[in-house]
Design brief:
The protein is an alpha+beta fold. It has one domain. 14% of the residues lie in helices and 26% in strands. It is built from three helices and six strands; from the N terminus they run E-H-E-E-H-E-H-E-E. A six-stranded mixed β-sheet has the order 4-1-3-2-5-6. A hairpin with a 7-residue loop joins strand 2 and strand 3. The chain is globular and about 35 Å long. The N and C termini lie far apart (34 Å). It holds the Pfam family Imm33. This is DUF2185 domain-containing protein. InterPro entries: Imm33_dom. It comes from Comamonas koreensis.
Length: 114
């Protein structure tokens, strides 16, 4: 049985070139489908060509949600930057970096949990 088509919060026409050439990343449907801002982002070390190492979540996903592989997929980093433009200033952070949205709604550096 085919999985149902996802209804993304932004259409392809709404995606602008904000952070191009940065490779792929993993992001959850809480961002791309539900339209939630990035609440947690971490950059893992990677050896795969084209993988930026970035992983983006809304920050409220539990283990059961993350264990369901249809709840996240690979995107171009630029796509996720369109959902949360405030991530752009952190995209040059080295691997083993992490940022979390604080109570004031700002992304701040936090210890890497990788």
């Amino acid at each position: 049985m085919n999985a149902p088509q996802k209804k993304f919060a932004l259409s392809a026409e709404q995606i602008k070139p904000l952070a191009t050439g940065r490779g792929g990343c993993i992001a959850t449907d809480r961002i791309t489908v539900d339209g939630r801002p990035v609440g947690y982002m971490e950059r893992q070390e990677t050896t795969r060509p084209g993988d930026s190492g970035w992983r983006f979540t809304a920050g409220d996903e539990n283990q059961a949600y993350m264990s369901e592989r249809t709840n996240h997929q690979v995107y171009d980093v630029n796509t996720i930057a369109n959902y949360s433009p405030d991530i752009i200033e952190f995209l040059d952070a080295p691997p083993r970096s992490a940022f979390e949205r604080n109570a004031a709604g700002q992304l701040v550096k936090v210890p890497y949990g990788g």
